Amino acid sequence: MDISSKENTQFFSNNTILPVDRSSFKSESSASKEKQSCRGGIKVFLGALSFVYFAKALSGSYLKSTITQIERRFDIPSSLVGVIDGSFEIGNLLIIILVSYFGAKLHRPRIIGAGCLIMSAGTFLIAMPQFFMGRYRYERFPSTINSTVSISPCVQDESQTPLSALEKSQAKINAGCEKEAGSSMWIYVLLGNLLRGIGETPIQPLGITYIDDYAIEENAALYIGCVQTVAIIGPIFGFLLGSLCAKLYVDIGFVDLDSVTITHKDVQWVGAWWLGYLIAGVISVLAGIPFWFLPKHLPRPESRKDSSTSSEHSEFITEDNKNQHKSYQQQVKIAEMAKFLPSLKNLFGNPVYILYLCASIIQFNSLIGMVTYKPKYIEQQYGQTSSKTNFVIGLINIPAVAFGIFSGGLIMKKFRINVLGAAKLSLGSSFFGYLLLLSLFAMGCENSDVAGLTVSYHGTKQTTDYEQALFSECNSGCACSKNDWDPICGENGVTYISACLAGCQASNGSGKNTVFFNCSCVGTLESPSRSSSAVVGPCQKGNECSKIFLYFLIISVITSYTLSVGGTPGYILLLRCIKPHLKSFALGIYTLAIRVLAGIPAPVYFGVAIDTTCLKWGSKRCGGRGACRLYDSSALRYVYLGLTLVLGTVSIFFSVAVLWVLRKRSSPQDETLSANGERVACGTKSRKDNFVNSDRLIQITYWPEKETRL
């Protein structure tokens, strides 16, 4: 409209004298008002979108922090938790194509607002099972549950068997027991996460394109960078929220906390995992409110009004030419559809793109699996609580990732690295990152001494069948169940699965202060003739393990930073080696491949592998295998780190192949290009111009799992 007003002003200036100043004044006044409204509108949208990015990153990282809590609450294995975690990507993939195509033609802000409501509904749905499946029941001997009746842990006959043991023996007979409330409530968590993925879908493609359409061209990259920066802050608060909720008992507000006989250091402890989802859901609702009041279109800045994509462009098309314009657009669409298969063939015929795509898929398999089960690994390997684990990840690892991403972009910009340099930097980052990861094999703690599992009742290392080794001469006179998990710590520093299996004959006190006496198995390691005492709860790992954990944190932070440095150069490599008209298509294929081949399967098979290291499975009240209570520390370390390292090594080989292809295609002069030189290896545009465009595209493009890449 400004162009039209200027032309009208020039026309009247040739025929009249007095109206010139008034019309020009009105034109300048309206232009200034339009410019101010454009800036104000885009800044409001920028603030709202930043808040949405914060909300979705917070809820996503909070889910990662509650993996172990969900596993214990619903008594499910790690492999099933991996399916729940991957359901977010499935939900995202269900409608990503529809949203990306039809969303741009509709009211984008309101679609984002609707997505926020769907995302919040999914988050609320995840928390709902807490209110329908009853109170959390953990395994405890009756004498520890604030009872005035003194019951001997070592029962001599079935008539003295505690009620909980009788219930478990009769559960297998009850055919309908498995259908009790709460046995399959984890399905609601899966559906909620699926719904959360659906709601998150329109935020990134529609929000970023809206900014790119209506922001001043030189400010668009800055605005998008601000949004991505806020998105990195979200996981910090997500893990810190997970740390806070993990300290609170799962049924806080519903039960008397004085009656709870376990502490947050116990492997059966479940924190208030549901509380964080309610908070995240409220934040998502609040984040979506502003979008319902934003306009479908904003006034375009002066620099973009001559663009063919301008919404006002149609106003300059005369009525006589509208039909011709529509028919021309239809012909263009048909031509674009006809070019789809050749474009796909062209894309997959690019060896650099294919090799980099393979390297990225395998590397993201490694990183996503590592990130998903990192809290579990820290808890089981170093004996840390869920609260401390989430606090450490949120306050130390996430900032290291953010700083690494920033450093990679800064290095690329400062040294104006070409495509070969980007490939080398990406390869070097992965190589040294996984090399540091290799050192973590030496930073593990030994298994805790658990009688009948990791050590025998005589103090030797366990080599026989675990289930048979739970029974010994010292507890042969007791009618104990091998399915119970009610650990006690003997004064000899050995953990016993239950007071019954420890051969304890009497107890004193109640709740957390219960002390067991005359435990025949506790005294066998040092003085077999002397019976000893034990207290409620497993024995803690020694001070040596705490020191090793400190070294692990240092190496983990450095590793996170090193791997993150190569992220931005890798994307620049991807963008520079694709023909300009294929960039959007190539990035879409790239994102789709990462989600389908890494985001969904990685948590599942990592969980299956981790389940193989379990030494003691819990038992559901109605029979059947529950969540794992104790892992083999050494086996867990080799499986978790080994699988991550193997995948990372394979991705490095593909990265080396990328570098080899680039070197083969490049001339010696290309390696020493000046700032304004021509690129020969992967294109014909000016290196400087393409660098700027690539910088802008890298910020626009969604980086899968960027917010939680540790």
Structure summarized in a few sentences:
With 710 residues, this protein is mostly helical. It is built from 23 helices and 7 strands.
List the helices and strands and how they pair.
Layout: H1 2-13, H2 19-65, H3 67-73, H4 78-102, H5 108-127, H6 163-171, H7 186-200, H8 203-214, H9 217-247, H10 273-288, H11 319-338, H12 340-348, H13 351-372, H14 374-382, H15 386-415, H16 419-438, H17 466-469, E1 488-490, E2 495-496, E3 506-508, E4 515-519, E5 532-536, H18 543-565, H19 567-576, H20 583-599, H21 601-611, E6 614-619, E7 625-631, H22 633-665, H23 687-700
Antiparallel strand pairs: 1-2, 1-5, 3-4, 4-5, 6-7
Helix pairs in contact: 1-2, 2-5, 2-8, 2-9, 2-10, 3-4, 4-7, 4-20, 4-21, 5-7, 5-8, 5-10, 8-9, 9-10, 9-15, 9-23, 13-20, 13-21, 13-22, 14-15, 15-18, 16-18, 16-19, 16-22, 19-23
Overview of the molecule:
With 710 residues, this protein is mainly α. Helix content is 59%, strand content 4%. It has a 5-stranded antiparallel β-sheet with strand order 2-1-5-4-3, with no helix packed on it. Strands 6-7 form a two-stranded antiparallel ribbon. The radius of gyration is 31 Å and the shape is globular. It starts with a helix and ends in a 10-residue tail after the last helix. Mean pLDDT is 78; it is low at 1-31, 143-149, 157-176, 307-320, 669-681 and 683-710.
